[in-house]
Amino acid sequence: MKNNILVLGGKGKTGRRIVERLNNLGHNVRVGSRSESPAFDWDQPAGWPAALEGMEKVYITYQPDLAVPGAKEAIEAFTTVAKDQGIQKLVLLSGKGEVEAQRCEQLVFNSGIDSTVVRASWFSQNFSESFFLEPIQHGFVALPHADTKVPYVDANDIADVAVEVLLNDGHQGKVYELTGSRMLTFEQVVDEIAEATGRDIKFQSITLAEYMAMLKEFGLPEDYLWLIEYLFTEVLGNKENQVIAHDIEKVLGRKPIDFSEYVAETVTSGIWSQPVEA
Predict the structure, then answer these.
(1) Number of domains in the chain
(2) Coil vs helix vs strand at 29
(3) Tens of pLDDT along 18-52?
(4) Which among 10, 43, 141, 144 could disulfide-bond with 135, CB atoms 3.0 to 4.6 Å apart, if both were Cys?
(5) Domain range spanning residue 73?
């Protein structure tokens, strides 16, 4: 039976992978994006009913993060509209160890709609599709909290879990914590990528203050700077994020994709060897 599913952030790291999987399975998928028609924009609630019309299930990602100011209000308003539009199931991507995100989770659970939360650790793809990519391409990575270990989770595992939850019963009211199967420091990550690419990529430990000053010099917007500082202080240092979970095995019946598998696959794309324009 075909499902009608709206994937918010359908062009992002997890969303585009979910869209691809659902399309391959023959489901009717609508990409929730500002560039689509009907468009979906978190800042334009008047357009939400059109994006939800005819849909039965929704995968929710909030940009840039559920922790940012205004996210709680937006999620609460969205769930109200979703219920009015007859949505039958919600799957929320949340962040592991984020107190603000957990407040948003409760709003989804209290929406009166069959809901599941997928609470993920930091993504492996942050090193190839996000803010850690450019330093790797430059061959010099300077980051704070060098000794903190993280069980990075692969975006493909998140997508597989989300698809399972969207399509099948038995997940109502559940919170699935998704992590990789081993802990890695930033330096260990950089060393693995350097070895796999055959490049000399240097790592340097710096303070958070030094890192934030460096980002400010690049002219990054204030809301982005706030989020980065929050992630490094409240999330990366949170003991909850330094625990390996086993929910990927529980939901999918297989082990998580190891970080080394992610590295081996990403190397073949050539993304880490591409020159960076000055």
Answers:
(1) 1
(2) strand
(3) 999 999 999 999 999 999 999 999 999 999 999 99
(4) 141
(5) 4-120+153-178+243-256
